[in-house]
Each structure stands twice: as C-alpha cells, then as structure tokens.
Design brief:
The protein is an alpha/beta fold. It folds into three domains: 243 residues, Glutamine Phosphoribosylpyrophosphate, subunit 1, domain 1, CATH 3.60.20.10; 201 residues, Glucose-6-phosphate isomerase like protein, domain 1 (Rossmann fold, 3-Layer(aba) Sandwich); 161 residues, Glucose-6-phosphate isomerase like protein, domain 1 (Rossmann fold). Helices cover 36% and strands 23% of the residues. It is built from 18 helices and 27 strands. The strands form five sheets. It has an eight-stranded antiparallel β-sheet, covered by helices on one side. A seven-stranded antiparallel β-sheet has the order 5-6-7-8-12-13-14, with helices on one face. A five-stranded parallel β-sheet has the order 19-18-20-21-22, with helices on both faces. Helix 8 links the parallel strand 18 and strand 19. Helix 9 packs parallel to helix 10 and helix 12 packs antiparallel against helix 13. The radius of gyration is 26 Å and the shape is globular. Bound molecules: fructose -6-phosphate. Fructose -6-phosphate (F6R) binds next to helix 8 and helix 15. Fructose -6-phosphate binds next to helix 8 and helix 15.
C-alpha cells in the first residue's frame, strides 16, 4: 500500500536522496506511482511519475530538485487510475501532502469545495484534505490549526504528511488508521510509513497512535491528540537493521524467502518449543488455557488459510471449539463473543486494516486477544494482549511464503499447548508431535531439493487458463492457499476446493485443458481423496499429484504428473506440502515473465479496507 517518507533537516544537505532511498525501502509494499516534493528557495517543487521508482529517478536526473525539507510517496491506487496526475504529492502554491488510506466522506467534502470554486487537478480523495488545509491557511490559521481543523471534518482511515512553503523547518504528520513512525536524527527529524522506510536514517523511532498529530522541526517533535493536547509517545529502538534487504544472489525475493524456510522455521520453533526436552515453554498467559470455552481465529488471505489449517489441530488435538472468519466479514458481523472465549489474530505485517478493526471489536467486547505476528512493534502487536512473534524476518515478496509456514509452526505449538493444558493429549502423543516438529526443518530442506522437478511441471501450466487445487482435512486450506499463490503471481485463474465438494458443482469445470493439483499426503483421508482424483482422471482431467512414496505407489495413470514428497506425520504435512505449492506458483510466474515480487495490483501491507 502507499508509502510515506518525510525529512526535515537543518543541514545544508539535500534531502532528496534520503527520501528516494526511503521510497526504495518501501517498494516491497506494492505501488504504482511515486513522487517527491521539497521546499526550495521559498517555493514548493514537485516531481512525480506513474510506474516504478526508476521513472521518478530518471525524471529527477533530468530535472533535479534540492532542499532540506521534503516529503515523498509511493502510491497504490484507490481513487483514480495510476497516472502522473493522480500520483502524490498533491500540492497548491503553499502546501503539499502525501497520504495513505481512504477519505470516506471525500465526495461530500469535494462537492462543498467545488461549490466554493476550488479546482481539482486529480481524481484522488487526497486532494480534498489538501484544499481544506489550504483554505484554512488562507484564512490565517497556523499550519497546525489548519490541519487540526481539517481532520475534524475528515472521515476514514489515513496517514498523512504535509509540507508548508512558508515554514521551511516544518512537517506535520497525522494518523488515524494506517501506521506512521517518527524518526530521530541529528538535527534532523523523519516521518515514515514504517521503521523500514527510515532504516537508512535512524534506529530511534516513535510510533504514532490513532488520532495523533505530530509537528516536526529539525530539532524535535511535538505530538498532540485531536483535542490539541500535548501527548508523550515512547521512543523505541527499531528492530529493523540499517542495511537494505537484498536478494543474496537469488533471482527474486520470493525465491530467497522460500529457501529461508528451514532456517526461519528452526528459529521460530526454538522460541516456543524446547527440542532437547521435547517440552513446550510458552510464556505465562494472562488466562488459563484449560478454561477457554471457544477460540475465535480471524485473519486475511494467506494468514487466514494458516488459521484454517490450525482449526483442524485445535479441534482434533485440543478439542476446543473454533470459530474462524476473514477479518473483513468478522468486523461487521457483530458476532457475540462468549465469556471465557479468546480470540487469535494472525498477520504477517500486523498492519492489515481489517484485522486491526476485528481486534478492536473483540477488545470492545471484553475478550482477550492473542496475535501471531511477524512484525514486532506493529499496530496489531501493540493492540493484542499477548504476541507470539514468528521469526520469519522481513518478508519482501508480496506473495507470502515464509510468514505462512512460520505462522503454521506457532499455531501447531499453540494447539499442543492447549491440548496439554486441557489434558486432551497423552504424554506419548505429545512427545511424538514434538519430535515431528523438530524434524520439520530437515524435511523442508529435502523438499526444496525437488525444485527442478517442480519447475518442469510449471512449464506445463504456461498455456492453461484455469487450474484447480483440491485437498481434504488440513490439505483443503492448503489447496486454497496454493490457488491463491498461483493466481496472485502468475495471473492464471486458480481455485481451491475441498476434494469431497468437487462433485457438488466444480467437477463441471474438468476437461483436458484444466489441470488439478491434488494435495494428498498418505494420511487417514488419503483413500477418500484417491476416489476424487479417479473421478477427475475419468473425465480426462490432468492431475499434478503432491504425495509421498506410498501415496504415489497407488496410482499408475500416465496422466499424472508427480511431485514425490518426503513422508511426513499429519501435524507437519501442511508445512511440508506448502513448499511445492509455492515453488509451482513461483516457476509458473517466472516462465510467464510476470513481476514476481511485486505482482500487479497487489500490496504487501493492506492498510485500507
Ligand atoms: C498472499 C498474501 C496476503 C496476506 C494478507 C494478510 O500471498 O500475502 O493474502 O496474507 O493480505 O496480510 P497480513 O498477514 O500482513 O495481515
């Protein structure tokens, strides 16, 4: 989603390169245009370009700008197509703005402004904020009063940063929804959408709270709430390193992240699980696991599918009723939250707007919440009662891979902890599950060795327009996740189905040109899936079979393309089987020549609803 960077500096140096480097570090969030505005000799100057950051850099090279106070932006289009006119910053003679989020009442505000004769130059919702602030400045209000007065009539979720021609040592930022970080430098201050955007400038950051307005000068920051009262916010040491994250020899971040999985899984497991003593060591929770009457799991996209896999574990192993929903539905459903229940939110970024709103609802109902989150200090990590961090490290590829499998690991351990507390598992079974988990990094290493075979199969998908994925039990959410991976990076239409549900409709889609990826470890449900695979083969549907030696040995059909995975226990099969679905999507996308790490229309951190 949109990224914001701002620098106010006392030094005579030009802030443009610092702003551009900040934008480069924000590229991973997904964007379709970028721009920069600075104060130069009592004038606001701006450069902005549709497309990738290189376009803006080329423009800046051709017509450079310089100054020591500036704001910059990467835009992910919401209102108006991604072109130069809609790219941020938006500006009048005296004020410039960059914005992340959505102004929900912009129609109304725009109509009022149009009636007053204001001329709009873009299709964006952002421009109404710009013109409102501009009008207040013209009426003689200070920049702070102008912003405060404007925000009192604006509805929606937004993070903004503004620059004022007549105040060369001033930036104003405000947050209501999407995150904003303030950074501290030597006689310089910074604004960033996250700590990553500022990681080349500082490690000292403050995260603004909802409703905060920050007034930055090169000497420091003053933070106010919406009523205009001064508030104090903690300065923290950012956990993001200073170096920019690189591909370390891999062709794409996604491929690098797929290969990191053995390591990050090892690291994640060792946070929660003592391999030597096959015991579980969770930090003490503010409630007793044995008394929890219902677990509600809420997340979006891939994180939701991780939760869906875990539903099987929590129900089967820990015998706890689970309610599961996607955050965008849950937040408006007003579901009753039973007494003694707890809620679990899963998010890589910790900034997903719908997941944050769902957590806020649960909190308003008085239920405690847990978070499985990859970004420490994120909004969700700060909102939940207990955070379980996944140790995946920064995930840059838009398509989630290592975050998914590390989420699964934490969920598996959490399910075992629940089972142990609720006495629904024997010590013998618990020990076996722990041994299985300890073996997981090794099995993933073995699975990664299959990448050549998988790449070969990916070639056969190049000409197809539709792919189905099927699975049963925990392999069903994996089928949904596999289909999501394929469609988001290769743009091939793909759908996941519960294998047993095929004959209730989707089987009508089966024909020679529609391959089905069957996710079928040899487990208690394997024979059931075999029947579904046979039904597809009888209708000339090609199959890509993901199974182990034993599973494959039961099929003789030549119409089957085979990916032979290591034998796994049922608990860890979803993590192992996730790998070939990721690689299949990856190689298909590479052969199709798509933008694997930043696929079209997608954003890494979905900070608008
Ligand atoms: C798909 C993907 C998305 C995210 C979803 C939630 O590859 O990455 O579906 O899983 O947008 O994001 P987080 O986990 O940051 O809340």
């Amino acid at each position: 989603m949109c990224g914001i960077v701002g620098i106010v500096s006392s030094q005579k140096n030009n802030v443009v390169s610092g702003l551009i480097e900040g934008l480069r570090r924000l590229e991973y969030r997904g964007y379709d245009s970028s721009g920069v505005a600075i104060i130069s000799e009592n004038k606001l100057l701006r450069r902005r370009k549709a497309g990738k950051l290189v376009n803006l850099e080329a423009d800046l090279k051709e017509s450079p700008v310089s100054g020591n106070t500036g704001i910059a932006h990467t835009r992910w289009a919401t209102h108006g197509i991604p072109n130069d006119q809609n790219a941020h910053p938006h500006m009048t003679d005296q004020v410039a703005i960059v914005h992340n989020g959505i102004i929900e009442n912009y129609h109304l505000l725009k109509d009022q402004l149009l009636e007053k004769g204001v001329q709009f130059t873009s299709e964006t919702d952002t421009e109404v904020v710009l013109h409102l602030v501009n009008q207040h400045l013209e009426q003689g209000l200070s920049p702070f009063e102008s912003v405060k007065k404007t925000l009192s009539v604006v509805r929606g979720a937004f993070a903004i940063a503004m620059l004022f021609r007549d105040y060369p040592n001033l930036l104003i930022a405000a947050r209501s929804g999407p995150p904003l970080a303030i950074g501290y430098g030597k006689e310089e201050m910074y604004i960033g959408s996250d700590a990553v955007a500022l990681s080349h400038l500082t490690q000292q950051v403050t995260f603004l709270e909802d409703g905060d307005i920050a007034v930055l000068e090169n000497s420091g920051v003053k933070i106010y709430n919406l009523e205009g009262k001064r508030v104090e916010r903690k300065i923290q040491q950012s956990k993001v390193g200073t170096s920019s994250i690189d591909k370390e020899g891999f062709e794409h971040f996604m491929l690098k992240e797929i290969h990191e999985q053995p390591d990050v899984i090892r690291r994640t497991l060792s946070e929660y699980f003592n391999i030597t003593h096959t015991g579980l060591h969770f930090r003490p929770l503010p409630f007793a696991l044995e008394n929890v009457s219902r677990l509600t799991i809420v997340a979006c996209g891939t994180a939701f599918y991780a939760g869906m896999v875990a539903k099987y574990w929590f129900e089967n192993i820990a015998r706890i009723p689970v309610e599961l929903d996607i955050a965008s539905e849950f937040r408006y459903r007003q579901p009753p939250m039973p007494k003694d229940g707890i809620s679990l939110f899963i998010s890589q970024s910790g900034e997903t707007a719908d997941t944050l709103a769902a957590q806020a609802y649960v909190k308003s109902q008085g239920q405690p919440s847990l978070g499985i989150i990859n970004v420490a200090n994120s909004s969700l990590a700060r909102a939940v009662d207990v955070t379980f961090l996944t140790q995946a490290g920064p995930e840059i590829g838009v398509a989630s891979t290592k975050a998914f499998t590390t989420q699964l690991c934490v969920l598996a351990v959490l399910a075992l902890a629940f089972a142990q507390a609720r006495k629904t598992i024997s010590q013998e079974d618990l020990t076996q599950y722990c041994k299985d988990l300890a073996q997981l990094p090794l099995l993933i290493e073995q699975t990664l060795l299959l990448k050549k075979d998988i790449a070969e199969i990916a070639r056969s998908l190049l000409e197809v327009n539709n792919v189905l994925y099927i699975g049963r039990g925990p392999s069903y959410p994996l089928a949904l996740e596999g289909a999501l991976k394929l469609k988001e990076i290769s743009y091939i239409h793909a759908e996941g189905f519960a294998a047993g549900e095929l004959k209730h409709g989707p089987i009508a889609l089966i024909e020679e040109s529609v391959p089905t990826v069957a996710i079928a470890p040899y487990d208690s449900l394997f024979e059931k899936t075999v029947s579904n695979i046979q039904e597809i083969l009888s209708r000339r549907g090609p199959i890509v079979l993901l199974s182990d030696e034993k599973g494959h040995s039961l099929f003789t059909s030549q119409a089957i393309k085979r990916i032979i995975l290591p034998t796994t226990s049922s608990l860890i099969a979803p993590m192992v089987y996730a790998i070939p679905t990721q690689l299949l999507a990856y190689y298909t996308a590479v052969y199709k020549g798509t933008d694997v790490d930043q696929p079209r229309n997608l954003a890494k951190s979905v900070t608008v609803e």
